[in-house]
Amino acid sequence: MYSCGTTVYNYAHIGNLRTFTFNDTLRRWLRYRGFVLNHVMNITDVEDKIIRKSMELGIPMSEYTLKYEKFFLEDMDTMRMEKPEKIVRATEHIHEMVELIETLQTKGFTYDSDGSVYYRISKFPGYGKLSHHDFSGIQAGARVDNDEYDKDDARDFVLWKARKGEEPAWDAPFGVGRPGWHIECSAMAMKYLGDTLDIHTGGVDLAFPHHENEIAQSEGASGKPFARFWVHCEHLHVDMQKMSKSLGNIFTLRDLVELGHTPEALRFVLMSVPYRKKLNFTLESMQGAQTSIDRLRNYKLRIETAKLAAGTNEDVTKLAAEALAKFEASMDDDLNTAEALAAVFEFVRETNSLLDQEQFLEGNRAAALDLLARFDTVFDILGVRVAAGGIEDSAVEALITERTAAKKAKQFQRSDEIRKQLLDAGIVLEDTKDGVRWKRK
RNA sequence: GGCGCGGUAGCCAAGUGGUAAGGCAGAGGUCUGCAAAACCUUUAUGCACCGGUUCGACUCCGGUUCGCGCCUCCA
Fold first, then answer.
1. For residues A329, A331, A332 and A334, what is the CA-based torsion angle, rounded to 10 degrees?
2. Could you tell me if A362 and A419 lie in one domain?
3. N or C: which end of chain A has fewer CB within 10 A?
4. Per-residue flag: A130 CB under 7 A of strand B
């Protein structure tokens, strides 16, 4: 599997993060179903914006890109995304790109213009198939180009850009310069995954022209189908509109954390809408997501700690089996995460009621926990990360013991004091009929 | 203009020829020394509008309307 990664010229925004969370969901579900993955994701670390910004700052391009690559990988980690088996940088595969361009030259798919090399789209009949673009009405050379490039056809795209000024460049048989964006993915995908990949993913906006161009390059060179499946993640919108600088509605993970939201809440929001649908992001939905996560975590805690009567309630066994079946069927159905989530919530509500009625028995505990564990294999939102330097579990337990004693002696002032002290340390107490339960906020 | 997506309760949102999942918010309740937390119940005679097909349509067909995206870099 190959995924178009990010261009490291700035912090990733939540739209980028949606696509990578989708990659992660797909990864995890394939693994859940027993597939062994070889997942490659690229990092674009040479490109117009990067060159311009690093030159403005007067620093080497790699210094600039490494900084944002680091932030990006940190964000992936914070969002609990699994790392692809390989993460590859464009600048470390210039040789492969040059070779691919040479192959295309030999096969007559290219032409030179002012030291740059272009792909001649009219040589590739299937162009436009993936994105349903019909170019039959466009005549070669009909469009009046701007001055920047001298192309024979508006559709043609650059494979190798001739060096301009002091920008970073590499030697190649066709002149000093740097690779075009599209050739990066073709070269790296084929190097690690062969001529034909099983799955190629990316954001919808990449379908045209990026993926269309990848197909033209790879299939032009190899003569074989490039990808068996193309899977595109729809965009995330903010308040019904695409994020853009002019609208000022771009959020990064760091922005949300500063507003007091958790990364898990974002993960939940991103996963609550199937990848193929547009997702309308609102800050209100972040709040709702957190409440939902807390509810699931409370349920898990309840199942783990409740005092249960011996025996097994077959109705619960049946409910758990049905919930798991629905969860798996939903995920199998083109990763319908919304339905999968619904299956779990339904089970939680039903079994919470049974717990209230003491109909949930000791023998049912394992099945419920197994469902949650399987759910969390994919969703990964139940585990709480303990902040470094936080209060130790044993200290919490000791204070709770003291508080319980104080309560028994009706020293409510002291018990409330302890409750407050723990709350300040991020520990929430819950008095239940089975005793005191606590959790980290 | 070309191609495509979508309009489902206050909000987010699944579904799809057989009579509306789920979450959040709201309302009511249970528990409790008080709280907090938690839990439960409840919330769309109707799925943008009009017409058609059908025993039956939110779901199919035709039309209308509104919103959005791609067609240049973009996850």
1. 130
2. no
3. C
4. no
